[in-house]
């Protein structure tokens, strides 16, 4: 009986994950998507794949086995360098001829597609696996037209199995160089050259937060995003709320610079890199509905695979339809120990030199090694900080030896970002000017421990590293919450078993992300400074209105904090700037009076129903958007420095005018208890609010008449003073009689175990502390409860 003919080509729709040995990881994953995700609405471009039998037939027909073995042996024996070994193999592959049976099978499948322009992608049998991502190790060819060009591209894909970076990567991952094979995937081009494309992850790539989809996007073909040659748009979508079609849980949209786009070459095959127009740079690639559709696909794909996924997508500019181009397991966060939390803390740092997107959460220091192209990698000094315009897979051998990486271009899904994560390197990408702002040999510190924004500091900074085992943190009846100021850092602490957020300060969002005074955005003509007016114009360029700029930025910052702890409560305090602090915002001087004592002046609740009322309305609109549009109903609003019950009534009335009516749609409103009147009239305040949060710093200052910032009176400022503790115990008792909860946010629980013991004894419901002191306070609370037999 004759053997069955060898099947050199397979339709992508006929393969699945079990076929990795035949068609490689990438093509097997595409087949899996086509077979199982269509019913979930995931749109995948079809096509065909070559069986690895085609690769082995090509190797045999051209006597390439001896070439491969000889070159690899010489490399491993250090008789020739890597670049010479790889070049020898590739040149032999490119000089080879495809066997007639293989070529005929490829061309027959191509004709069956209608002979369109195609993408020709490499799919190695040892790539896209959970233990090895092989990011960009083999080649992809886009806009391949015609039969001759297709066969050339297939042969070039075979040769790319032995790029220098692929050889080095396999060696470091213990993969047998001689047994690996390659399949070629061929798909009709999605016309993203007229639309857009990019990458998405079903997990936050920096923190491992599992309930986030992160999407990067650029106009044109997606290679610019993958390679990191542009700074793309970024979207973050909260997964648990995607099932509700009435909500839009997009917690962040970040407009990238998108300086270039990759399109079809004007003549023939291939691609061209063109500058994007000024209009495109000011325009988001995706609409909200498109970002939500992609995020839902990411969730469906992750659910099918049962693990976090890394996906490429494209939008056809002719039809407007979205497609998934490939999906592979995310490799970095999947390997991270879930119970371990390594925290880096910056102590003393030099001048801030540059900022960009932070990759990872670590800090590293070292001398700059400035390289402009991969041709210079022989100059790299191990242990230095690699500074370069962008990286591609050719840089991997020296990235392994770097202390950190800093690039001019790229986003969170660029090659530099992906490989740095996999290698455990801190990296800052998309700085815009690292190669011109830094000099070779200069000592710098690369800090990715302060949130989404990474900072390059001059000199070698002092920093500490601490390993926290979250599994050993005790459970307590008294809740321990977090104080959060910086939304960009909120996701860093999601592994802490906190009971929510007791104090989210929106002042940080206004001063760091919005930067301008709310009234200056509403009435820029009142700003006397021409310089401030110009700065406000730059900040709000491209936004529908300055008001929308404020509301969107503030809502996004609040939503990030709310998402990190959903569905646990997140108490968001409305703005509590003092007048001198407000005046320092862009345009602020025009709207703020001079006060001799701003600490006791026009602050908190007194602003919301008087001359700052329009600014407070914007805060209310942002909070309403977070709760009602995005769906974060775990957000509780808290009013600071509310002096009288009548003032409380006035503030609650203004809130209701702007969509925040206490009790509607589950809205709870708390009050800061930081003025003696809040304690004396606690029963009346309890009738108007759902809870109290004791601000121990201000309460101590006002009870004892001590300026908390006075160095001369430092010894008198003590929250443990009997006058203060009596008031705290009193408000806890009164609030509990009214069925209201009480928390305390202040520094004292972090510094003083005996104060924690007092609070537990008084029956406080929760304490709220900074993340770096959470474990210490949690242990102190547990000890206090054990001492009382709780």
Report on the architecture of this protein.
The longest helix is centred in the last third of the chain and has 20 residues, at 546-565. By secondary structure, the chain is of the alpha/beta class. The radius of gyration is 30 Å and the shape is elongated. It contains 28 helices and 30 strands. Helix 14 (506-514) crosses helix 17 and helix 17 crosses helix 20.
Alpha carbon gap, first and last residue: 80 Å
**Rg, alpha carbons:** 30 Å
What is the overall number of helices? 28
**Helix content bin:** 25-40%
Low confidence ranges: 128-134
Strand content: 15-25%
Number of beta-strand segments: 30
Largest sheet report: 8 strands, parallel, barrel
Name the shape in a single word: elongated
Which structural category do the helix and sheet elements fall into? alpha/beta
Instruction: Indicate the mean pLDDT.
Output: 91
Strand order, biggest sheet?
Answer: 23-24-25-26-27-28-29-30
């Amino acid at each position: 009986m004759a053997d069955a003919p060898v099947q050199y080509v397979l339709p992508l729709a006929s393969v699945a994950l079990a076929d990795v040995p035949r068609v490689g990881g990438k093509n097997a994953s595409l087949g899996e998507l086509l077979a199982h995700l269509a019913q979930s609405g995931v749109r995948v471009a079809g096509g065909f794949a070559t069986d690895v039998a085609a690769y082995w037939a090509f190797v045999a027909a051209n006597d390439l086995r001896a070439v491969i073995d000889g070159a690899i042996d010489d490399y491993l024996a250090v008789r020739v360098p890597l670049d010479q070994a790889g070049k020898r193999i590739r040149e032999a592959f490119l000089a080879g001829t495809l066997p007639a049976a293989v070529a005929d099978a490829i061309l027959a499948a191509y004709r069956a597609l209608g002979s369109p322009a195609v993408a020709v992608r490499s799919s190695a049998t040892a790539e896209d696996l959970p233990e090895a991502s092989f990011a960009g190790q083999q080649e992809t060819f886009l806009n391949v037209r015609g039969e001759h060009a297709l066969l050339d591209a297939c042969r070039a894909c075979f040769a790319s199995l032995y790029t220098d970076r692929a050889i080095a990567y396999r060696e470091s991952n213990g993969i047998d160089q001689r047994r690996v094979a390659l399949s070629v995937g061929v798909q009709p081009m999605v016309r993203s050259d007229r639309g857009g494309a990019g990458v998405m992850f079903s997990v936050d790539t920096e923190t491992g937060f599992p309930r986030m989809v992160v999407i990067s996007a650029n106009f044109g073909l997606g290679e610019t995003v993958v390679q990191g040659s542009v700074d793309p748009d970024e979207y973050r979508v909260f997964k648990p709320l995607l099932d509700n079609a009435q909500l839009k849980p997009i917690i962040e949209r970040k407009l990238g610079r998108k300086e270039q786009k990759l399109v079809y070459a004007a003549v023939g095959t291939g691609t061209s890199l063109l500058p994007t127009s000024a209009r495109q740079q000011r325009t988001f690639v995706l609409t909200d509905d498109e970002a939500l559709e992609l995020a839902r696909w990411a969730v469906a794909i992750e659910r099918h695979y049962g693990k976090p996924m890394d996906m490429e997508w494209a939008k056809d500019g002719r039809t407007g339809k979205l497609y998934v181009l490939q999906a592979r397991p995310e490799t970095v966060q999947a390997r991270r120990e879930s119970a371990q939390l390594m925290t880096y803390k910056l102590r003393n740092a030099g001048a801030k030199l540059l900022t960009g997107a932070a990759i990872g959460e670590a800090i590293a220091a070292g001398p700059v090694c400035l390289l402009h192209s991969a041709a210079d990698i022989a100059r790299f000094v191990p242990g230095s900080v690699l500074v370069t315009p962008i990286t591609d897979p050719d840089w991997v051998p020296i990235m392994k030896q770097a202390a950190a990486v800093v690039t001019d271009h790229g986003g969170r899904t660029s090659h530099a970002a992906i490989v740095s994560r996999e290698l455990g390197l801190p990296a800052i990408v998309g700085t815009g000017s690292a190669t011109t702002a830094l000099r070779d040999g200069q000592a710098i510190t690369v800090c990715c421990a302060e949130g989404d924004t990474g900072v390059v500091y001059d000199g070698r900074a002092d920093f500490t590293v601490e390993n926290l085992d979250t599994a050993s943190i005790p459970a307590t009846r008294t809740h321990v919450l977090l104080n959060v100021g910086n939304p960009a850092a909120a996701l860093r602490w999601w592994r802490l078993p906190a009971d929510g957020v007791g104090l989210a300060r929106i002042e940080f969002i206004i001063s760091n992300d919005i930067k301008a005074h709310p009234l200056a955005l509403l009435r820029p003509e009142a700003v006397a400074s021409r310089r401030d007016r110009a700065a406000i114009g730059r900040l709000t360029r491209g936004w529908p209105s300055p008001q929308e700029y404020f509301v969107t930025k503030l809502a996004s910052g609040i939503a990030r904090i709310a998402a990190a702890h959903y569905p646990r409560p997140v108490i968001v305090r409305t703005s509590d700037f003092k007048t001198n602090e407000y005046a320092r915002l862009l345009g602020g001087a025009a709207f703020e009076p001079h006060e001799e004592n701003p600490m006791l002046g026009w602050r908190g609740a007194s602003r919301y129903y008087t001359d700052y009322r329009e600014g407070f309305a914007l805060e209310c609109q942002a909070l309403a958007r977070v709760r009602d549009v995005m769906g974060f109903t775990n957000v509780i609003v808290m009013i600071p420095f509310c002096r009288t019950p009548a003032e409380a009534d006035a503030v609650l009335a203004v809130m209701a005018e702007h969509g925040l009516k206490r009790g509607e749609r589950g809205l709870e409103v708390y009050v800061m208890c930081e003025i003696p009147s809040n304690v004396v009239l606690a029963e009346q305040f309890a009738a108007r609010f759902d809870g109290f949060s004791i601000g121990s710093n201000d309460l101590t200052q006002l009870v004892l008449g001590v300026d908390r910032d006075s160095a001369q009176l430092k010894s008198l400022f003590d929250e443990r003073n009997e006058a203060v503790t009596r008031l705290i115990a009193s408000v806890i008792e009164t609030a509990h009689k009214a069925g209201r909860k009480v928390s305390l946010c202040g520094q004292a629980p972090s510094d003083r175990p005996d104060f924690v013991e007092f609070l537990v004894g008084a029956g406080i419901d929760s304490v709220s502390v900074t993340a770096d002191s959470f474990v210490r306070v949690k242990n102190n609370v547990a000890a206090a409860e054990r001492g009382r037999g709780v």
